[in-house]
Every structure is written in C-alpha cells, then in structure tokens.
Amino acid sequence: MGSSRDIAIGPVAVVSLLIGSLLQAEVDHVKNKEEYMRLAFTATFFAGITQAALGFLRLGFLIEFLSHAAIVGFMGGAAITIALQQLKYVLGIANFTRKTDIVSVMESVWRSVRHGWNWQTIVIGVSFLVFLLFAKYIGKKNRKLFWVPAIAPIISVILATFFVYITRADKQGVQIVKHIEQGINPSSVHKIYFTGPFVAKGFKIGVVCGIVGLTEAVAIGRTFAAMKDYQLDGNKEMVALGTMNIVGSMTSCYVTTGSFSRSAVNFMAGCKTPVSNVVMSVVVLLTLLVITPLFKYTPNAILGSIIISAVIGLVDYEAAILIWKVDKLDFIACMGAFFGVVFVSVEIGLLIAVAISFAKILLQVTRPRTALLGNLPGTTIYRNISQYPEANLTPGVVIVRVDSAIYFSNSNYVRERILRWLTDEEDRAKAVGLPKISFLIVEMSPVIDIDTSGIHALEGLYKNLQKRDMQLILSNPGSVVIEKLQASKLTEHIGSSHIFLAVSDAVRFCTTKSMQEP
C-alpha cells in the first residue's frame, strides 16, 4: 500500500519503549497484566486510526510541524526517559514508580537503595552494559568491524541466559523473563477497549505513538528514496502504516513502524522491493514457533542493558550544538522538547515541540524580514546594505525589499516597517545634508502572494506617501501579485508607469525625474 521500496517494518526501539513507558504510567504490567495488554492493543488501534486518517484526509503536512530540531530534542529526551526506566531491571528493583519524569524516577531509585537493589542483578546488568558499549565503540572506530555491535546483543542474551541457568541466579532474586507463549499471536479484537475509562487513555497513548511512529517512518522512507532517486508519497505511507497497525491491534501486536537499522540492512543487502518484509515475517514466525522456550531464563537485567545501550545513541548532542550555531529559535524548540519529556512527560514534551515549532512559523509569518537595498559599485545590482556594507544608497530614493508574501497576519507590520525605514532615511538625509527623499521603491520579487489585507496596507502606504509628497514605486511584482493589484484597481492609483521590472530601471526613472524637477 505504501510507496517506499526500502522501509523495513517492525517494532523499533523508540516507539516500543515510548508505548511501554506510557502504558506503565497508566497500568502496572505486573499486577494487572491483562489490563496492560488490552490497553496496549487499544493504543495500537487508535495509533492506526490516527495514521490512516491523516493519510486519507491528506493531512500529512501536519507532521511537518515537528521540525528537525524539535525531533532531535524529543528523541534525546525520550532516550533519557527510556534509559531511566530500565534502571529497575539493571538494579533489580521490584517496586518502582510508574511515573516517567526524571525527578520521580530518581526518587524511586534512591528510596530503594538500602533494601531494593539486588547485587547479583547489578553485576549482570552493568557487566553486559559495559560489553555492549565497548562493542559499539569498536564498530565506530573500525568500519570493517561493523558486525561486532550488531551481534553483541545476541551474544549478551545467550551468555546471560546460560549464566543464570547454570547458577540458578533467579533463586537469588535475579528477575528473569520466565515463560513465553509459543505460536502465532491469537486474535485480540475482543480485547480492544471501545467503552469505559481506558478508551480515552488508549486514544491519548495511541495518538502520541502514532505520530512519533509516522514521523520516524516517513523520515526513513525519504532518506532511502533520496538515495535511490525515487519519489515517496507521504500520504500513501500513512495509510499503509495505519492499516498495518489497525490489523496488528486485532492480532495481538503493538505499534510498529519503519526501522532505520533494518531498512539499512535491507539496503546494504541489495533488496529492491517490499518482499523483503515478507521474508523477515517468515523468520519471525519460525522463531515464535520454535525458539521462544529458550528465553525462559533470560534475565531482565540484560534486556535493560541492551535497551540502555540502544537508546544512548539517540541523544544527539552534536546535532544540538549545530542547531545552536545555526538557529537560536530552533535550539529553543530542541531544548523545550527535551526538557518537557525529561522533567514532565512524553506527551508534554511532544506538545511543547509542536507548540514551539508552530510559534516559530507564526513569528516568521507575522514578522517577515525587510531590507534596505543599495547599489553595488560598478553594477546595476541592488543588495541588502547589511549584507553588503560597500553598497551605496541612492540620494533622494529609498529602496526596501520585502522578503515574504504579504497577508493579513503581517500586512500592518510590513507597512509600519517600511515607513520606519523611510523615516530613518529622512532623518539621515537631513543630518548629512543629502537631497530630500522623493521616491520609495518597494522591491517585490520575493513577494509570492498578497491578499486583500496586504493590498489595503499598500494602499495605506501609498496615501501616506502622497501626504509626504513622495511617490511609491513597485519593482518586479510577480504575476499573481500584479493580477491582484490590477483587480483591486491599486495599479491605477499608483500608475502603471511607476511599476518596473527591475530595481535598476526604477532607480533610473527616479533619478531622471529628480533631475527634471526644478
């Protein structure tokens, strides 16, 4: 159903741990296992509904409100939260908080330091965590040994399981996986909540996980589509992911999405079509039918260590530093998402990420950039004098460029900003004894559109200039803009002789006109 040829579908670390932490905040998976599973299926169902609805309604652009900076911060915060949640397994803590914020988690850890920690569990967890991190370090240092970090988790599980089995460390308080059901997942249609208090909880968790999963899958799909030079239809991907999760919720599955690591393996192996997902499914099926009993003595500590080693890489501090250097507003969005997740909750962090990204868009729309233009010596080119200090201002003429469409949201600001430029230049001309300002040229090539409020603002600007005995000149308005100006009759007021194709033509007209005046 999707358009990507390379996305490998399945459980991924971020979404898996995200849904796990959100579910644990609502239901204790040890004391209320049945409710926990039912809520997981309900959340998966609503995640699928959310994804499919966005695709069918062609609302894929909504995920664009999650900027790259916000995603970096959100992922980093989620990684910290997920890693902290694994401390209960690595330290062997039986009674652990269901909250996900860092303050509550650390309070729970230190409260149980005297009587809740299990030293055998700590030895297993810390030892294999060091091994896994060392394996990742080797893989980064030597590209030829890329397979070392790939097989390290499997080796860790085998060794830890064997160690617990021969020493019977589970008798000493080391928590193990215990029995895992064999066979194909049974139907779970009857387990999805459609009524009762858990519906709202499942919906909330599902929407969060669905959006995060969607963002990750589309990002992965676009990455590989660019590498292979084909187009990705984001709306088709959403419908495909949504359908998959809706069906999955009815067959005892939780939220799945595109996996970057699996997709990368597919890419490196030369896979050309989504049939590779079918092959993977067959392998997983064989595992469920044959191998699951072997994991009975696997300690929870090793699973926690694997998860911690996996999510550490999601804290991309180098990207955060780069964001700070490039764009301070993006950095605020990044840090807002990060601290929102770490100190409050995943939902709040996601909300902060979207809110700050949206606020940035509003700021850019309502406060567009304007620039005062000057002539580059020896040319007919006019550029921003802040960017090119050597550019010369034209006596008696003020040239202003508007770097945005002019809409109701910014029309008053644009008009006031232009008048402010004009006033400043008038004061400067008087101070240094230059000729009186007689012409205002508005360079409109970046103005891709204008609405009635924008036209009204230009009309107000024109009338203001008439009172000052100045002339408004327009330079290079686009086809859409000029059609609307003509429809509004504003071009008749300004005069078609005062609309030019280039700034240089407008300046030549102004200087000629000034020379003709007594």
From TrEMBL:
Keywords: Membrane, Transmembrane, Transmembrane helix, Transport. PROSITE patterns: STAS (PS50801). SUPFAM superfamilies: SpoIIaa-like. It is a multi-pass membrane protein. It comes from the Eukaryota. The keyword Transit peptide does not apply. Residues 387-510 form the STAS domain. InterPro entries: SLC26A/SulP_dom (IPR011547), SLC26A/SulP_fam (IPR001902), STAS_dom (IPR002645), STAS_dom_sf (IPR036513). It holds the Pfam family Sulfate_transp. GO terms for cellular component: membrane. The chain crosses the membrane at residues 7-24, 36-57, 69-87, 117-138, 145-166, 205-226, 238-257, 277-295, 302-324, 336-359. It is found in: Membrane. GO terms for biological process: transmembrane transport. This is STAS domain-containing protein. It comes from Triticum urartu (Red wild einkorn).
